[in-house]
Amino acid sequence: MSLKLGVPSKGRLMDKTFAWFADRGVALRRTGSDREYAGAVDGVDGVDLVLLSAGEIPRELAAGRIHMGVTGTDMVRERIADWQDHVRELAPMGFGHADLVIAVPDFWVDVDGLDDLDAVAAAFRREHGFRLRIATKYHRLVREFLREAGVADYQLVDSQGATEGTVKNLTAEAIADITSTGETLRANHLRILSDGLVHQSQATLFRGRRDNWSDEMRSSYTALMAALGQDG
Ligand SMILES: Nc1ncnc2c1ncn2[C@@H]1O[C@H](COP(=O)(O)OP(=O)(O)OP(=O)(O)O)[C@@H](O)[C@H]1O
Ligand SMILES: O=P(O)(O)OC[C@H]1O[C@H](OP(=O)(O)OP(=O)(O)O)[C@H](O)[C@@H]1O
User: Fold this and answer.
1) 55 in contact with ligand 1, CB cutoff 6 A
2) What are the φ and ψ backbone dihedral angles of 231, each rounded to 5 degrees?
3) ipTM rounded to 2 decimals
4) With CB atoms 3.0 to 4.6 Å apart as the test, which of 102, 176, 180, 189 could cross-link to 136 if both were Cys?
5) Which ligand is nearest to the CA of 187?
6) Ligand 2 atom closest to the CA of 162, numbered from 1
7) Does residue 11 have its Cβ closer than 6 Å to ligand 1?
8) Closest listed residue to residue 71, CA positions, set 50, 44, 42
9) Measured between alpha carbons, how far is residue 170 from residues 88, 127, 130, 165 in Å?
Protein backbone atom coordinates (compact mmCIF):
# COMPACT_ATOMS: atom_id res chain seq x y z
CA MET A 1 0.00 0.00 0.00
CA SER A 2 1.16 3.54 -0.68
CA LEU A 3 1.07 6.40 1.79
CA LYS A 4 -2.23 8.25 1.47
CA LEU A 5 -2.36 12.00 1.97
CA GLY A 6 -5.90 13.39 2.47
CA VAL A 7 -6.54 17.01 1.49
CA PRO A 8 -9.77 19.05 1.33
CA SER A 9 -11.51 18.47 -1.96
CA LYS A 10 -13.13 21.90 -2.18
CA GLY A 11 -14.00 24.95 -0.20
CA ARG A 12 -11.86 27.47 1.54
CA LEU A 13 -9.09 25.09 2.58
CA MET A 14 -8.41 23.40 -0.74
CA ASP A 15 -6.61 26.08 -2.76
CA LYS A 16 -4.49 27.19 0.18
CA THR A 17 -3.50 23.61 0.90
CA PHE A 18 -2.29 23.14 -2.67
CA ALA A 19 -0.40 26.45 -2.45
CA TRP A 20 1.20 25.52 0.91
CA PHE A 21 2.64 22.29 -0.54
CA ALA A 22 3.70 24.04 -3.78
CA ASP A 23 5.58 26.69 -1.79
CA ARG A 24 7.60 23.84 -0.29
CA GLY A 25 8.37 22.22 -3.62
CA VAL A 26 5.73 19.47 -3.50
CA ALA A 27 3.16 19.73 -6.29
CA LEU A 28 -0.28 18.34 -5.49
CA ARG A 29 -2.49 18.14 -8.51
CA ARG A 30 -5.98 17.10 -9.30
CA THR A 31 -6.21 14.52 -12.02
CA GLY A 32 -9.24 14.08 -14.24
CA SER A 33 -12.00 16.64 -14.53
CA ASP A 34 -12.85 19.40 -12.04
CA ARG A 35 -15.56 17.21 -10.64
CA GLU A 36 -13.47 14.09 -10.26
CA TYR A 37 -12.01 13.63 -6.78
CA ALA A 38 -8.71 12.14 -7.83
CA GLY A 39 -5.22 13.53 -7.50
CA ALA A 40 -1.49 12.91 -7.48
CA VAL A 41 1.60 14.05 -5.60
CA ASP A 42 4.57 14.96 -7.79
CA GLY A 43 8.13 14.83 -6.57
CA VAL A 44 7.83 12.19 -3.82
CA ASP A 45 7.46 8.52 -4.70
CA GLY A 46 4.82 6.33 -3.13
CA VAL A 47 2.40 9.02 -1.97
CA ASP A 48 -1.23 9.02 -3.18
CA LEU A 49 -3.46 12.07 -2.94
CA VAL A 50 -6.98 11.52 -1.61
CA LEU A 51 -9.48 14.38 -1.98
CA LEU A 52 -12.01 14.46 0.83
CA SER A 53 -14.32 16.80 2.71
CA ALA A 54 -12.39 18.62 5.47
CA GLY A 55 -14.94 17.29 7.93
CA GLU A 56 -14.24 13.65 7.02
CA ILE A 57 -10.46 13.82 7.19
CA PRO A 58 -10.31 13.30 11.00
CA ARG A 59 -12.32 10.08 10.83
CA GLU A 60 -10.28 8.70 7.93
CA LEU A 61 -7.01 9.47 9.75
CA ALA A 62 -8.19 7.82 12.96
CA ALA A 63 -9.35 4.75 11.02
CA GLY A 64 -6.00 4.47 9.22
CA ARG A 65 -7.58 4.73 5.76
CA ILE A 66 -5.45 7.82 5.13
CA HIS A 67 -2.08 8.26 6.81
CA MET A 68 -1.56 12.02 6.62
CA GLY A 69 -4.16 14.72 6.21
CA VAL A 70 -4.92 18.43 6.20
CA THR A 71 -7.88 19.85 8.09
CA GLY A 72 -8.73 22.40 10.78
CA THR A 73 -7.73 21.71 14.38
CA ASP A 74 -11.38 22.31 15.30
CA MET A 75 -12.47 19.41 13.08
CA VAL A 76 -10.00 16.98 14.67
CA ARG A 77 -10.93 17.94 18.24
CA GLU A 78 -14.64 17.77 17.48
CA ARG A 79 -14.74 14.58 15.47
CA ILE A 80 -12.28 12.33 17.36
CA ALA A 81 -12.76 11.44 21.04
CA ASP A 82 -9.34 11.63 22.78
CA TRP A 83 -7.90 12.88 19.50
CA GLN A 84 -4.32 12.87 20.72
CA ASP A 85 -4.42 9.08 21.03
CA HIS A 86 -5.32 8.79 17.34
CA VAL A 87 -3.61 11.60 15.43
CA ARG A 88 -0.59 13.83 15.83
CA GLU A 89 -0.14 17.43 14.70
CA LEU A 90 2.82 17.77 12.33
CA ALA A 91 2.67 21.39 11.19
CA PRO A 92 0.33 24.35 11.62
CA MET A 93 -0.14 25.76 8.12
CA GLY A 94 -0.88 29.42 8.79
CA PHE A 95 -4.28 29.68 7.10
CA GLY A 96 -7.90 28.69 7.75
CA HIS A 97 -7.87 30.65 10.98
CA ALA A 98 -11.25 30.58 12.71
CA ASP A 99 -12.37 30.98 16.32
CA LEU A 100 -15.04 28.77 17.84
CA VAL A 101 -16.99 31.10 20.14
CA ILE A 102 -20.12 31.29 22.29
CA ALA A 103 -22.32 34.23 21.29
CA VAL A 104 -25.54 35.67 22.68
CA PRO A 105 -28.04 38.24 21.40
CA ASP A 106 -26.77 41.84 21.45
CA PHE A 107 -29.76 42.93 23.49
CA TRP A 108 -28.77 40.72 26.46
CA VAL A 109 -27.01 43.76 27.91
CA ASP A 110 -26.47 42.19 31.35
CA VAL A 111 -24.74 39.13 29.93
CA ASP A 112 -21.03 39.75 29.53
CA GLY A 113 -19.41 36.40 30.31
CA LEU A 114 -19.97 32.74 31.13
CA ASP A 115 -20.98 33.39 34.76
CA ASP A 116 -23.75 35.64 33.48
CA LEU A 117 -24.78 33.00 30.95
CA ASP A 118 -24.97 30.45 33.76
CA ALA A 119 -27.26 32.75 35.78
CA VAL A 120 -29.46 33.48 32.76
CA ALA A 121 -29.66 29.78 31.96
CA ALA A 122 -30.86 28.90 35.48
CA ALA A 123 -33.46 31.71 35.40
CA PHE A 124 -34.53 30.67 31.87
CA ARG A 125 -35.23 27.13 33.00
CA ARG A 126 -37.28 28.28 35.98
CA GLU A 127 -39.31 30.61 33.81
CA HIS A 128 -39.83 28.46 30.72
CA GLY A 129 -39.67 24.91 32.07
CA PHE A 130 -37.01 23.89 29.55
CA ARG A 131 -33.30 24.54 29.24
CA LEU A 132 -31.81 27.45 27.33
CA ARG A 133 -30.85 26.26 23.83
CA ILE A 134 -27.40 26.73 22.32
CA ALA A 135 -27.26 25.92 18.61
CA THR A 136 -24.03 24.38 17.28
CA LYS A 137 -22.42 21.68 15.21
CA TYR A 138 -19.48 21.50 17.64
CA HIS A 139 -21.14 19.37 20.30
CA ARG A 140 -18.08 17.77 21.85
CA LEU A 141 -15.99 20.95 22.09
CA VAL A 142 -18.84 23.07 23.45
CA ARG A 143 -19.91 20.52 26.06
CA GLU A 144 -16.34 20.15 27.35
CA PHE A 145 -15.85 23.92 27.45
CA LEU A 146 -19.11 24.64 29.29
CA ARG A 147 -18.54 21.79 31.72
CA GLU A 148 -15.15 23.23 32.65
CA ALA A 149 -16.71 26.69 32.94
CA GLY A 150 -19.41 25.36 35.29
CA VAL A 151 -22.34 26.24 33.01
CA ALA A 152 -24.94 23.51 33.44
CA ASP A 153 -28.54 24.53 32.74
CA TYR A 154 -28.46 24.48 28.95
CA GLN A 155 -29.13 22.10 26.07
CA LEU A 156 -27.38 21.87 22.74
CA VAL A 157 -29.51 21.90 19.61
CA ASP A 158 -27.89 20.67 16.45
CA SER A 159 -27.31 23.17 13.66
CA GLN A 160 -25.25 22.08 10.67
CA GLY A 161 -25.27 25.47 8.89
CA ALA A 162 -26.59 29.04 9.09
CA THR A 163 -26.26 28.66 12.84
CA GLU A 164 -26.31 32.42 13.45
CA GLY A 165 -29.89 32.47 12.11
CA THR A 166 -31.27 30.16 14.78
CA VAL A 167 -31.69 32.93 17.36
CA LYS A 168 -33.77 35.08 15.01
CA ASN A 169 -35.71 31.98 14.00
CA LEU A 170 -36.44 31.23 17.66
CA THR A 171 -34.96 27.75 17.59
CA ALA A 172 -32.14 28.73 20.00
CA GLU A 173 -31.31 31.44 22.54
CA ALA A 174 -27.54 31.43 21.95
CA ILE A 175 -25.04 29.88 19.53
CA ALA A 176 -21.57 28.36 19.39
CA ASP A 177 -19.97 28.61 15.96
CA ILE A 178 -16.78 29.57 14.19
CA THR A 179 -16.06 33.13 13.19
CA SER A 180 -13.22 34.72 11.29
CA THR A 181 -14.14 38.28 10.28
CA GLY A 182 -17.07 38.48 12.73
CA GLU A 183 -19.36 39.75 9.98
CA THR A 184 -21.91 36.96 10.21
CA LEU A 185 -22.25 37.44 13.97
CA ARG A 186 -22.66 41.21 13.59
CA ALA A 187 -25.19 40.87 10.80
CA ASN A 188 -27.26 38.60 13.01
CA HIS A 189 -27.06 40.88 16.09
CA LEU A 190 -24.98 38.46 18.12
CA ARG A 191 -22.11 39.25 20.49
CA ILE A 192 -19.24 37.00 21.64
CA LEU A 193 -19.08 36.46 25.43
CA SER A 194 -15.99 38.13 26.91
CA ASP A 195 -14.64 34.71 27.99
CA GLY A 196 -16.47 32.74 25.28
CA LEU A 197 -13.53 31.62 23.12
CA VAL A 198 -13.73 27.82 22.94
CA HIS A 199 -10.96 27.07 20.45
CA GLN A 200 -8.71 28.87 17.97
CA SER A 201 -8.48 26.78 14.84
CA GLN A 202 -6.19 26.79 11.84
CA ALA A 203 -5.48 24.39 9.00
CA THR A 204 -2.90 21.84 10.15
CA LEU A 205 -1.04 18.86 8.69
CA PHE A 206 -1.75 15.74 10.76
CA ARG A 207 -0.62 12.13 10.72
CA GLY A 208 -2.53 9.14 12.00
CA ARG A 209 -1.04 7.16 14.88
CA ARG A 210 -2.14 3.74 13.63
CA ASP A 211 0.77 1.41 13.28
CA ASN A 212 -0.32 -0.13 9.98
CA TRP A 213 2.52 1.30 7.90
CA SER A 214 4.82 -0.78 5.71
CA ASP A 215 8.54 0.02 5.34
CA GLU A 216 7.79 1.60 1.94
CA MET A 217 5.21 3.89 3.53
CA ARG A 218 7.65 4.91 6.23
CA SER A 219 10.29 5.82 3.69
CA SER A 220 7.76 7.81 1.59
CA TYR A 221 6.74 9.61 4.79
CA THR A 222 10.35 10.46 5.61
CA ALA A 223 10.95 11.70 2.05
CA LEU A 224 7.79 13.82 2.07
CA MET A 225 8.58 15.36 5.45
CA ALA A 226 12.13 16.12 4.32
CA ALA A 227 10.81 17.75 1.13
CA LEU A 228 8.47 19.84 3.27
CA GLY A 229 11.32 20.83 5.57
CA GLN A 230 9.60 19.28 8.59
CA ASP A 231 10.98 16.97 11.28
CA GLY A 232 9.05 13.69 11.32
N1 LIG B 1 -15.27 31.66 7.77
C2 LIG B 1 -14.20 30.87 7.89
N3 LIG B 1 -12.97 31.38 7.77
C4 LIG B 1 -11.89 30.58 7.88
N5 LIG B 1 -11.94 29.25 8.12
C6 LIG B 1 -13.14 28.73 8.26
C7 LIG B 1 -14.32 29.51 8.15
N8 LIG B 1 -15.36 28.68 8.28
C9 LIG B 1 -14.83 27.45 8.46
N10 LIG B 1 -13.50 27.48 8.47
C11 LIG B 1 -12.60 26.34 8.70
O12 LIG B 1 -12.68 25.48 7.58
C13 LIG B 1 -12.76 24.12 8.01
C14 LIG B 1 -14.01 23.48 7.44
O15 LIG B 1 -14.16 23.84 6.14
P16 LIG B 1 -15.48 23.63 5.36
O17 LIG B 1 -16.61 24.24 6.09
O18 LIG B 1 -15.17 24.06 3.98
O19 LIG B 1 -15.52 22.05 5.46
P20 LIG B 1 -16.70 21.04 5.54
O21 LIG B 1 -17.68 21.47 6.58
O22 LIG B 1 -16.10 19.68 5.63
O23 LIG B 1 -17.29 21.26 4.12
P24 LIG B 1 -17.89 20.23 3.13
O25 LIG B 1 -18.37 19.08 3.94
O26 LIG B 1 -18.97 21.07 2.53
O27 LIG B 1 -16.76 19.91 2.20
C28 LIG B 1 -12.81 24.14 9.52
O29 LIG B 1 -11.58 23.72 10.05
C30 LIG B 1 -13.10 25.57 9.88
O31 LIG B 1 -12.47 25.99 11.07
O1 LIG C 1 -16.88 35.52 10.76
P2 LIG C 1 -17.25 35.33 9.30
O3 LIG C 1 -16.16 35.76 8.38
O4 LIG C 1 -18.56 36.01 8.99
O5 LIG C 1 -17.41 33.77 9.01
C6 LIG C 1 -18.18 32.95 9.82
C7 LIG C 1 -19.09 32.08 9.05
O8 LIG C 1 -18.37 31.19 8.19
C9 LIG C 1 -18.82 29.86 8.44
O10 LIG C 1 -19.92 29.55 7.69
P11 LIG C 1 -19.88 28.85 6.26
O12 LIG C 1 -19.58 29.88 5.25
O13 LIG C 1 -18.99 27.66 6.30
O14 LIG C 1 -21.38 28.39 6.12
P15 LIG C 1 -22.26 27.43 7.05
O16 LIG C 1 -23.23 28.34 7.71
O17 LIG C 1 -22.87 26.50 6.08
O18 LIG C 1 -21.34 26.74 8.05
C19 LIG C 1 -19.24 29.88 9.90
O20 LIG C 1 -20.15 28.83 10.18
C21 LIG C 1 -19.88 31.25 10.03
O22 LIG C 1 -21.24 31.22 9.70
Assistant:
1) yes
2) -80, 140
3) 0.93
4) 176
5) 2
6) 16
7) yes
8) 50
9) 40, 16, 14, 9
Distance (Å) from CA 75 to ligand 2 centroid: 14
Query: In the CATH scheme, what architecture does the domain 98-201 have?
Result: 3-Layer(aba) Sandwich (3.40)
Q: Domain coordinates of the chain in residue numbers?
A: 3-97+203-227, 98-201
Same fold across 3-97+203-227 and 98-201:
yes
What's this model's pTM, rounded to 2 decimal places? 0.95
Q: Is the CB of 3 under 6 A from ligand 1?
A: no
Distance (angstroms) between ligand 1 centre and the Cα of 186 equals: 19
Topology at the third CATH level for domain 3-97+203-227: D-Maltodextrin-Binding Protein; domain 2 (3.40.190)
Which residue, judged by its Cα, is nearest atom 14 of ligand 2? 161
pLDDT in tens, 155-205: 999 999 999 999 999 999 999 999 999 999 999 999 999 999 999 999 999
Separation of CA 12 and ligand 1 centre (Å): 7
Distance between CA 115 and CA 108 in Å, rounded? 14
Q: Is 136 in the pocket of ligand 1 (CB under 6 A)?
A: no
Query: Which ligand ends up closest to the CA of 37?
Result: 1
